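Give me structure tokens for this 217-residue protein.
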Amino acid sequence: MSEKAVVVFSGGQDSTTCLFWALERFDEVHLVTFDYQQRHSQELETAAAIADELGLHHKVMDMSLLNQLAPNALTREDIDIETGEDGLPSTFVPGRNHLFMSFAAVYAYQLGARHIITGVCETDFSGYPDCRDMFIKSLNVTLNLGMNADFILHTPLMWLDKAETWELADELDALDFVRTKTLTCYNGIPGDGCGSCPACELRSAGLQKYLKQKEAR
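Here you go.
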């Protein structure tokens, strides 16, 4: 029986690495991207361009309600990217992954897909509570109970730091693709990005660490 998978896809480093991971394991891969009126439309454009280049079906879902409920630095240009008094960065969107995974499951249900892949990571998770392994496992149980389904939520990057994520991309023969064609930068600059926002700093430090390790082998 053909195994179908849905990748929660933003067009960034992590979700694109997960996409290549999924392509190696499943017969049919679908992409779902969520439009929550994020600060940069380039994220949606990048996701669409990657899907088009790889010839994959790409679904964009309207999640604008999330923007109204949870204003944050990813959706509002008048909110600075900083760490709040509660220790959470202003880029944290409450409920985002909960909603994304739930809607991805509804989409997967319609497609007859059991496997749902997301790039969340507890190692380099910036304190986001909805990136934790405990949350994903709990949600997996809830979705299966609530939909009488047998979904498997896959998190290939859960225990990897950024250097190890680059290493995985390299093992999947996708390092150059991920480096040049994805968008991680909070300022909307593709590839290596602006180099100064928290996302770029994390991405760049991980890449340099991995390349040094690779060279030393």
